[in-house]
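### Sample
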Amino acid sequence: YPVAFSENVDSKTMVPIDCFNEPWVIFRDQDGKAGCIRDECAHRACPLSLGALVDGKVQCPYHGWEYTTSGECTHMPSTVQAPTSVRALPCVEQDGMIWIWPGDKVPEATLPDLSPPSGYTIHAQITLEVPVEHGLLVENLLDLAHAPFTHTTTFAKGWPVPNSVKFKTAAAAALSGFWDPYPIDMEFRPPCMVFSTIGLSQPGKLSGTNTKDCPNHLHQLHVCVPSKTGTTRLLYRMSLDFAWWAKYVPFIHKLWEYMANQVLSEDLRLVEGQQDRMIRGANVWNHPVAYDKLGVRYRRWRQQQEDSTSRSEHSQIEDDFD
């Protein structure tokens, strides 16, 4: 799972995160290599992220115990040194992101490519904690039909409401395709990534029905990491194939952050409402229609993964019993 942008983790910075309801902290060692260890001192369970980085090691703020990126405790002030460690996760960097593997099995050797398409320049990389279960957020991102009704003060302001909105794919079970009548391509990529490319007739103006016919494009990557119960760690990257110089405008990142938060706030009040109803037992897929195709396919994919995990755990229980 990509959990942080590389640019946000320097030699003096610790980044605490939650992943699948467990606390971790990301930091760099003296050689600049990123690591991820459990954010919980082996001594008294104090959050290590409240401490400091000392020569590439995390120093617990309670009694000064120090940990390397492998999780080994190499210094115990005021007492006799003893073999002690905390759990460390496999951690690598690729495409300007820090990835971790929170599973028990050996991770795949090859990671998916999350870099923007050729000819695009990255203009914004934003990290947000969103108070919504990650699957609901993914389904929201995979739904474009809601835009003219929800995003009326941001990117969809003035959009007409078509008589028909459809998501078209090249294969029966595909998780990628394009929106008709909008010039927007979209893809869900396991386990939690959503890509979209928006065709623009000019900066800020949506026009036409095909991205290939548009002169300018905005490319987006959303990574929705399962954080805590009812919470998602969202990594957002925006790239453009025009106006490359705009990234050098002073404080432009503040503008992008403001716009991203405005769009998200329009979605949140609705998706948080869905989450509340789910907690009370509601089914958010009561009546799927044609434009729900991509979201339904994502939900089916996720259900297959959960069913597979459940069967695997059941088989393991039987093996242990035998």
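The first helix runs from residue 134 to 141. This sample (Chlorophyllide a oxygenase) is used throughout the tutorial notebook.
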